[in-house]
Amino acid sequence: MRSSLFFLFLAFVLQVSPAWAQRFGYIDSEYIVSKMPEFQKVNSEMDRWTQVRTKEIADKHAEIDKLERLYKSEEPLLTEPMKQQRREEIERKENEVKELNNKVFGYNGQYHQRRKDVLKPIMDELSRAVEKVARQKQLRMILDKSSEGLAMIYTDPRDDYSDYVLEELGIDPKANPNQTNTPTQNTKTKQ
């Protein structure tokens, strides 16, 4: 009797479990964002901003090099207090450049803050599109394949919803054939 109840329960579970199965999918956000024209614009803007700041820092390094060369050429003629004053000036300028470099490009520096600020609208738009695709395709969860904290060892191409998200954003997934970072093929087989 117990074994027949067990087999009856097992048969019930095996028939019902597909209905209870949760649906998952994944996207490649790097691929999606690389196809967004807004991202290309932001990237160009950030490149120009970086070039200006890098030149500013390089100019300050050149100024320090000039001061060091001048000091070395005049060193035999300088008194000890004058030498000390010049070395302190060079050291002060070196510290200023280090501080500027850290302020601009360091952790939580201007570069990272600015990039975060200009990417926020793009990431918000991506998030809304992902949410809409998840609802349309009745997915319980969408993972991001390009996330650093998530290791996806194997992914079935049928579960890649990147192209659906691109379509939701109004972007042709087949555009920009020169892109090197493309999602897996056969993504349109899902219903």
Describe the structure.
The chain is mainly alpha-helical and 191 residues long. It has one domain (19-189). It contains 6 helices and 2 strands, in the order αβααααβα. The chain has helices at residues 2-20, 29-35, 37-74, 80-105, 110-136, 162-168, and strands at 24-27, 141-144. Strands 1-2 form a two-stranded parallel sheet. The longest helix is centred in the N-terminal third of the chain and has 38 residues, at 37-74. The model is unreliable at 5-10 and 177-191 (pLDDT under 50).
Q: Overall pLDDT, averaged? A: 82
Based on DSSP secondary structure assignment, what is the total number of beta strands?
Answer: 2
> How many structural units, i.e. domains?
1
Structural class comes to mainly alpha
| Strand-residue proportion | under 5%
Proportion in helices: 55-70%
Detail the poorly predicted runs.
Answer: 5-10, 177-191
Tally of individual helices: 6
Family: Belongs to the Skp family.
GO cellular component, one term: cytosol
Region (Disordered): 168-191
Keywords: Coiled coil, Signal
Which helices and strands occur, and which strands form pairs?
Layout: H1 2-20, E1 24-27, H2 29-35, H3 37-74, H4 80-105, H5 110-136, E2 141-144, H6 162-168
Parallel strand pairs: 1-2
Helix pairs in contact: 2-6, 3-4, 3-5, 5-6
